[in-house]
Amino acid sequence: MSSCNMFTNWHCFTLWWCYVLQFSKPITSEEGKDLGLVDAVVPSDELLKASRQWALDIIERRKPWIRSLHRIDKLGSLPEVVAIIKTARQQAKQSFKNLPQHQACLDVIEEGIIHGGYHGILKESRVFKDLISTDTSKGLVHAFFSQRAASKVPNVSDIGLKPRKIMKVAVIGGGLMGSGIATSLILSDIYVILKEINSKYLLKGIKAIEGNVRGLDVDMVIEAVVENIHLKQKIFADNEKACSRHCILASNTSTIDLNIIGEKTKSQDRIIGAHFFSPAHVMPLLEIVRTEKTSAQVILDLMTVGKIIKKVPVVVGNCTGFAVNRAFFPYSQSAHLLLHLGVDIFRIDQLISNFGIPLGPFQLQDVAGYGVVVATTEIFSISFPDRTFQSPLVPLLLKNGRNGKNNGKGYYIYEKGSKPKPDPSVLPIIEESRRTINIMPGGSLYLLRTMKLFR
Ligand SMILES: NC(=O)c1ccc[n+]([C@@H]2O[C@H](COP(=O)([O-])OP(=O)(O)OC[C@H]3O[C@@H](n4cnc5c(N)ncnc54)[C@H](O)[C@@H]3O)[C@@H](O)[C@H]2O)c1
User: PROSITE patterns in the record, alphabetically (predicted)?
Assistant: First the structure.
């Protein structure tokens, strides 16, 4: 049961919650009671009766009226509090560029602290009214409910299936993604076998994986080798032979249609996409890709593993690029088109990060690695030959000994202990790429139309 002031603000609080979620820490009713914010905790069916009795007790002076709104005993001195708010403002400005709600929350808290709780509540109601109708608010509320809806998958989560226990997982390929996925699993106490080889020992390695996988009888294999259709097909066929019949066969592919990956197996019902995002042990999204043949049990099992390792599993359909890269690829292509039309790449990245996206498209390519950029472009160009812009730039960068963050040299220079810096020595390579594409002045519209990207 809440104190009167808390109670009257409850509706407001529910929506406000969407705003403050990234910034604050939820507490349980019991913790609220210990902190003196809540008078009592009662079962929901007794709430009304207990509230009435409590109100009567206050009126009859049998109980004190504790108004949490006016409590200041947990606050430090005013200068201390003002300094804390100032630091919080700077942190919010850095982490949540262009999002108004964090500063607004701090404005409200500051008002309450300086002028008293009642003024804080009045300010909250004014600020709330202003913010609730903004596009940012609508977007955040949508994201909040979508995230919750993502765990409800028709014919999977509502047919009485129980998730099976996934105790051991094999990760094949220990590069950027494989090592991140393995870290995520290990951090959640899931036993991991990580297999890695170089190309020279490819065949020998596959045999060794087979042996290990069979020996340890894992519940799921997540393949995270380079984005190569034939290699993935071979690994899936080998895993099918090596693993038990219940083992889930998952791929971390960014783009390749899972029906193609599983083409050489007879286990289509347990083939599924487990698409993590880089860095895999940090990014919350887990895109789970189901084909028409993936069984409900396998989908549910992977959703459960996703939750255990503290990801947000979102089940999507199967096609080239799935949901995320299908949307993301044109964004990245547009950046390359702009570059070839003469726009400065560092300006593009700066504008995007000013907008609030942590990394611009070029710096993101540096971080993801050029191998995956080249491979995904190839996969998209096979599926959509008339809609893919084959930028010659990334192959040129590779030819010039650059591989992004991986070897410290990409569009930016990466040195230990310092922030990435734009690298001016990349500009002649960009010029060479522009000459290869040879867009004439005024040819921009022609190029875009030719690409059929903008009709
Ligand atoms: N880089 C990203 O941001 C990103 C994001 C999401 C998904 N992915 C996908 O994840 C997969 C791996 O990408 P990555 O960026 O980690 O690549 P990577 O090049 O960093 O790592 C791939 C690793 O696989 C190893 N390998 C190659 N053949 C193997 C085999 N037969 N057996 C075992 N290991 C083998 C390689 O030695 C290498 O270390 C790709 O399918 C990619 O599309 C990448």
Answer: 3HCDH
Closest among 125, 135, 114, 98 to 358, alpha carbons compared:
98
Ligand 1 pocket member 378 (CB < 6 A): no
pLDDT at 10 over 80: no
Integer Cα distance of 52 and 222 in angstroms = 57
Q: Other CB atoms closer than 10 Å to residue 389's CB: what's the count?
A: 20
Residue 455, pLDDT > 50, answer: no
Ligand 1 atom at minimal distance to the Cα of residue 253:
41
Close Cβ partners of 398 (under 8 Å, ≥ 6 residues apart): 370, 374
- 235-269 per-position pLDDT tens digit: 999 999 989 999 999 999 999 999 999 999 999 99
Name all domains of the chain by residue range, CATH numbers in brackets. Answer: 4-146 (no CATH), 168-316 (3.40.50.720), 326-450 (1.10.1040.50)
Please tell me which residue, 268 or 40, carries the higher pLDDT value. Answer: 268
Beta bridge partners of 285: 312
220-223 and 312-316 strand pairing: unpaired
Q: Which residues contact 112 (CB under 8 A, 6 or more apart)?
A: 119, 120, 121, 123
Amino acid 5: pLDDT: 31
Structure tokens at 323: 């949901």
CA dist., res. 235 & res. 178, Å (int): 15
> How many Å apart are CA 213 and CA 247, to the nearest integer?
10
Query: Is 8 a residue whose pLDDT tops 70?
Result: no
Q: Phi first, then psi: what are they for 226, rounded to 5°? A: -55, 155
* Residue 172 Cβ contacting ligand 1 at under 6 Å: yes
Cα 171 to ligand 1 centre (Å): 11
Is residue 278 lining ligand 1, measured as CB closer than 6 Å? yes
Please indicate whether residue 6, judged by its CB atom, sits closer than 6 Å to ligand 1: no
How far from 406 is each of 57, 366, 369, 402, CA to CA, in Å?
68, 8, 7, 9
Lowest mean pLDDT across 98-107, 208-217, 230-239, 442-451: 442-451
Residue 444 has pLDDT above 60, yes or no: no
Q: What is the pLDDT of residues 121-150, one digit of tens each?
A: 999 999 999 999 999 999 999 999 998 899
